[in-house]
Amino acid sequence: MAKQPRRRCKICREWFYHRFQNEWWCCPEHGAEYGIMLREKEKVKKEQQRKKEAQQERRNLKIRKLALKPDSYFKAQAQQAFNKFIRLRDHDKSCISCGETNPPDLHGGQWDCGHFKTVGGFPELRFEERNAYRQCKSCNAGSAKHGAKAATVAQQYEATLVERFGQELVDWLNGPHEMTRYRREDFIRIRDEYRRKCREMEKKLEDA
Ligand SMILES: [Zn+2]
Ligand SMILES: [Zn+2]
């Protein structure tokens, strides 16, 4: 006679001989308990499945929403990330125009990223690191206006560039540049690249 294989009870781990193929318990009580355990497990699994589906649905909704956003939305995000990087890069530099190291806090912040060649007039230098430096809010606001203040800010900006990097850089910035035709994917790529660079820079500054 073949030796009947033993099984361990799923509940108490005791060895027992089963009579039915689907019997995994040593006694009716443990059978009932095992039934409850299985139902409980099933409930947990279903709940996890439901959560996963809800998460996927939220993700899909986000993708659909982003698809409806205009290119300008991503352009603004890219510019924001780039500008933040410039401010971080120049964290220990004084204002590129007036030389102020501790400007007054205007509108919830002291510093802007100021472009030497404006983003409106020279969009091809919009994301050019050599064309952007940390600038105090007052100078940046001044350069946006026309008139004497703007001219002074621009002159000071140029003088500091020459001082820090030499005349060649100013000549290069003033020279002709290849026109860029940024598309949606470019803005997203630039945004992600500068967000990454910002994180790296922030980490470096924290560790320092
Ligand atoms: Zn048992
Ligand atoms: Zn300034």
- The helix count comes to 6
> What amount of the residues lies in strands?
5-15%
Largest sheet: 2 strands, antiparallel
Ligand roster: zinc ion
Based on secondary structure, the structural category is mainly alpha
Number of domains: 2
Order of helices and strands: EEHHEEHHHH
Biggest sheet strand order reads 1-2
What is the averaged pLDDT score?
94
Shape: elongated
Report the span from N to C terminus.
78 Å
Point out poorly predicted stretches.
Answer: none
Number of strands: 4
Rg from Cα: 32 Å
Helix percentage range: 55-70%
Description:
The protein is mainly alpha-helical. The chain has helices at 28-68, 71-89, 137-144, 148-165, 167-174, 184-207, and strands at residues 7-8, 15-16, 111-115, 132-136. 57% of the residues lie in helices and 7% in strands. Helix 2 runs parallel beside helix 6, helix 3 packs across helix 4 and helix 4 packs across helix 5 (167-174). The longest helix is centred in the N-terminal third of the chain and has 41 residues, at 28-68. The protein is elongated. The N and C termini lie far apart (78 Å). The mean pLDDT is 94. Bound molecules: zinc ion (2 copies).
How are the elements arranged and paired?
Layout: E1 7-8, E2 15-16, H1 28-68, H2 71-89, E3 111-115, E4 132-136, H3 137-144, H4 148-165, H5 167-174, H6 184-207
Antiparallel strand pairs: 1-2, 3-4
Task: Offer a concise description of the structure.
57% of the residues lie in helices and 7% in strands.
Considering the chains and any ligands shown, give keywords for the structure.
single chain; 208 residues; mainly alpha; 2 domains; two-stranded antiparallel sheet; 6 helices; 57% helix; elongated; binds zinc ion
